[in-house]
């Protein structure tokens, strides 16, 4: 038995990751965009939110400045994001997941972990479950998804990226350590660019190189993260799939096509952003005490203001009134504004509110896993 198998009971974990999600939805809904290099977001200013595979072949990536993306891909087509459409597809996908397991941990609109150690359909084979889920996503949404199947979250996520797009990769307990040894450490969750560069200076380029390092050496060079990297090199990951991760905050922001200074225009934009966010707050049954305003000026200076209420922000009107008061405190604007954002924090679920006393029901604690 290898170290990974000995460390914890064997689980059956699937990581599902939609392929170029935002861009694929746009190409699905507008046939004229199919086969073209497209970028969602960006346009006149800002950054690329997502890129189609046709654009990625030119080096276009998410979070890339739109100017850079256009320079390296002159034929790039910019498409305005439609987050309502993406959320609707995400709901369809999560409904499919829920047919197989209650243990679903969404990471974003387009990816999630599933623990199918005990699946609802009694299929019993994680690979078959992943194949069935991918087939259903294709049939019900017209989109493709890639999946990784393994015995822990670390390996499942690595595997889902192995055969993209529209791919499936299975890493069994017998293969785990060899699979990790063959990969660049740059692909490991928790190894960012700075850490990867430091590892390279120490001669650590692959999982095999990392495995050759002692725990003492890794702790000396990476502090408390040394144990984590030591485990990754041996395909050990104890993180559980958590179906109910509590939100710490929720926010929305928008970068404008033109810098704004007029009070009436700014207040109108804030109301629009706040209305969009409040719909998300209601859909997630959240409530909070602290409203935060974010302002980014034309020179990229960022200013934030916040205000807390004694209990909870009761409704959209109160939420927008607080946000408006925070913005008015910064007006007239000393310089043009390129971005506004609103957020709500000090959150708790609306389900945590006390039930009406006349019901005579005992309140059961809501547990976050």
Description:
This protein has 369 residues and is an alpha+beta fold. Among the domains are: 21-83, MutS, DNA mismatch repair protein, domain I (3-Layer(aba) Sandwich); 177-233, DNA polymerase, domain 1 (Orthogonal Bundle), CATH 1.10.150; 249-352, 2-Layer Sandwich (Dna Ligase, domain 1). It is 37% helix and 22% strand. It is built from 14 helices and twelve strands. The protein has helices spanning 3-7, 21-29, 53-56, 66-72, 83-98, 126-141, 153-160, 176-181, 193-201, 207-211, 215-222, 226-233, 263-283, 316-328, and strands spanning 13-18, 38-41, 48-51, 77-79, 104-108, 111-115, 145-150, 168-170, 249-260, 286-297, 302-308, 337-349. Strands 5-6-1-7-8 form a five-stranded mixed β-sheet. The chain has a four-stranded antiparallel β-sheet with strand order 9-12-10-11, with helices on one face. Strands 3-2-4 form a three-stranded mixed β-sheet. β7 (145-150), α7 (153-160) and β8 (168-170) form a beta-alpha-beta unit. The longest helix has 21 residues, at 263-283. The relative contact order is 0.10.
Total strands: the figure is: 12
If you compute it from the alpha carbons, what radius of gyration comes out, rounded to the nearest whole angstrom?
23 Å
Mean pLDDT comes to 88
In the CATH hierarchy, what is the superfamily of the domain at 249-352? DNA polymerase, Y-family, little finger domain
Could you please say which CATH topology of the domain at 249-352 applies here? Dna Ligase, domain 1
Structural category is alpha+beta
Strand residue percentage: 15-25%
Order of helices and strands: HEHEEHHEHEEHEHEHHHHHEHEEHE
Label the CATH architecture of the domain at 249-352.
Answer: 2-Layer Sandwich
Shape call: globular
Low-confidence stretches: 1-7, 350-369
Q: Report, as a whole number of angstroms, the end-to-end distance.
A: 30 Å
**Number of helical stretches of at least 4 residues:** 14
Identify the CATH class of the domain at 249-352: Alpha Beta
């Amino acid at each position: 038995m290898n170290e990974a198998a000995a460390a914890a009971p064997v689980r059956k974990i699937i990581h599902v990751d939609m392929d170029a999600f935002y861009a694929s939805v746009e190409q699905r809904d507008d046939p004229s965009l199919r086969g073209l290099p497209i970028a969602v977001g960006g346009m006149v200013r800002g950054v690329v939110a997502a890129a189609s595979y046709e654009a990625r072949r030119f080096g276009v990536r998410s979070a890339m400045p739109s100017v850079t993306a256009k320079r390296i891909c002159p034929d790039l087509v910019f498409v305005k994001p439609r987050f309502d459409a993406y959320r609707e597809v995400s709901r369809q996908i999560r409904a499919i997941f829920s047919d197989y397991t209650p243990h679903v941990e969404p990471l974003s609109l387009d990816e999630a972990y599933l623990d199918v150690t005990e699946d609802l359909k009694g299929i019993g084979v994680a690979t078959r479950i992943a194949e069935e889920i991918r087939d259903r996503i294709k049939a019900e949404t017209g989109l493709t998804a890639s999946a990784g199947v393994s015995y822990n979250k670390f390996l499942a996520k690595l595997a889902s990226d192995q055969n993209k797009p529209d791919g499936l990769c299975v890493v069994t307990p017998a293969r785990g350590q060899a699979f990790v040894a063959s990969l660049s450490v740059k692909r490991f969750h928790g190894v960012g660019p700075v850490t990867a560069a430091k590892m390279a200076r120490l001669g650590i380029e692959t999982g095999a190189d990392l495995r050759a390092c002692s725990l003492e050496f890794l702790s000396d060079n990476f502090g408390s993260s040394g144990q984590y990297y030591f485990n990754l090199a041996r395909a050990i990951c104890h993180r559980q799939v958590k179906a109910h991760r509590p939100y710490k905050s929720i926010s929305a922001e928008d970068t404008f096509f033109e810098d704004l200074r007029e009070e009436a225009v700014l207040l109108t934009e804030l109301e629009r952003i706040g209305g969009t966010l409040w719909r998300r707050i209601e859909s997630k049954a959240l409530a909070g005490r602290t409203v935060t305003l974010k302002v980014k000026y034309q020179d990229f200076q960022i200013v934030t203001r916040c205000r807390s209420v004694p209990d909870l922000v009761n409704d959209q009107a109160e939420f927008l009134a607080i946000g408006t008061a925070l913005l008015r405190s910064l007006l007239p604007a000393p310089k043009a504004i390129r971005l506004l954002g609103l957020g709500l924090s000090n959150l708790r679920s609306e389900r945590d509110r006390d039930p009406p006393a006349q019901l005579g029901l005992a309140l059961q604690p809501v547990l976050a896993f």
